[in-house]
# Entry
Amino acid sequence: MSTDFYGILGVSKDASDIEIKKAYRKLAHKYHPDKKDGDEKKFKEINEAYQVLSDKAKRQQYDQFGSSGFEQGATGGFGGAQWGGFGGAQGHGVDFDTGDLGDIFSSMFGGARKGQSQRSGRDIQVDIELDFIESVKETKRDVKLYKAVSCAKCSGSGGEPGTEEKTCPTCNGMGQVRQTTQSIFGAMQHVATCPECRGAKKVFTKKCTKCGGDGRTKEDQTVTISIPAGIENGQTIAIPGYGEAGERGAQSGDLLATIHVRPHERFQRQGDNIVSQQAISFTQATLGDKIITDTVDGPIKMKIPAGTQPGQMFRINGRGVPRIDGRGRGDHVVKITVTVPRKLSRKQRGLIEELHTYE
# Structure
């Protein structure tokens, strides 16, 4: 039975690259095996679907032939693979590199693309909630992570301290192996990164007893994230190198923090400006007054000129949202509402009626 990669990601067959990527990131974050409620099997399915649909050539192949050419264990497929160095490969048919088909074959065979040695660490995505006022001002957040870090015992090398390196016996120091498979195209030979040395061409005589030769261990870590003033709801901050450690000293991934700003009861953001409403009395609107109004910097005095109309707006320069590039701030815009009294005394009514005769 053909696997529905589109269904796994929850997108339509005519979904754009952006829609596919957005769906993948959302699901990968939800089912990441490092999370308490993660699902490793589901996470692998999501990754497999994304690797196919994010590549134009593989997506076209999938749309035409289905998933049989990509699935491990297909009829006569990857389950019958034969490993060997370049001199020992057996079989006939088409010979092409895993780089031609991308990451799917290489990830199934435990390696990376041709020319790439140890795999880089994965990115980690986190969500951070801020109050509106916090988003306007620079702030910091401590994020607790449980992630792969460089092994302290072997310093990420994967070898037991004091042991030496030797030529990899699996690939004979080539860093790559050939593998014969059967697929919808017939018998094929694939060049893949050696599963033993991961393309490094050498292995240690004894693997590190702490990390098992991977060069990484899982540990709790707290990372302090600096959030710039003026961050918007939905923006993502990238902290390079704070994701998971790479395999055997390879480059670490990034930490991606997506910011979610809670709405404020009085302030609304419009670009770099902040808008609020201020109620004044009928008398203040008619005669003018000096009032106190709230801003993100605290209460300030504001002059209400005589004859102010309902809905009229007043701009307070430089009291809005700081610009991310550091080039000043927006403004605070105050929209006036006029409160009309529901009950009047006989004297108040008489004064208003007298005023009406002069209009």
